[in-house]
Amino acid sequence: MTPPSPSPSDPRSALPPEKPGDSADADVTLADIRGGAAVALLVGVAGVLLGVLWAWLAPRVQYVSNGEAVFLRDTESEGRIGSDGTFLLLSAGLGALSAVATFLWRRGGGVLLAVGLGVGSVFAALVGWRLGLWLGPSSDLAAAAAKAGKGVPFDAPLQLVAYGVLLVWPMIALLVHLGLTAVWGTRDPVAADSGWDGPYPPAYVHPVEPPKS
Fold first, then answer.
1. Are 107 and 184 in contact (CB under 8 A)?
2. Looking at the DSSP assignment, which residues form a beta bridge with residue 65?
3. pLDDT (tens digit per residue) in 4-49
């Protein structure tokens, strides 16, 4: 048995038919694309700050030359670990700052905004790493030892022992941004009432069998 067709007074007849993909949430606007690209670019450029701070604040490891070979001046030095730790802390702080700045710029969030933040954070970590190596002491140990002289300590080049710290910035940035969006992000407006005042569920939801004669 087929259900009765709705009458002109039926609330369903006053509503326009829905089209596939008509939802505004599924639309990707040009503003969303521009926003994601802008976040990726600005966050990526912020990697320069990471490189400068890392080259400035990272603890130094010193070598000494005997004229034939280069040795660690202090074999018990924890400078290598300290260099990784400094990079980690700086990346975590800058990742949180970039997430807060992105959220304050656009509280609505969005997939493309999060993608831009993640891509920009990865690029920023790589920029900071390579720039810090370039700004730090020379990686040419032979030239540095010859310049310092026999028995004179000189700074070793910066180095990351654990490359996993390169993921700290994107991980912190995405987690902080997700938390901020979940707690203080804008919410979608509640759909307007359909105007149905009758009993629930309406009669047309379930077919009504005609009375038996």
1. yes
2. 70
3. 555 555 544 444 454 544 444 446 789 889 999 999 999 999 999 9
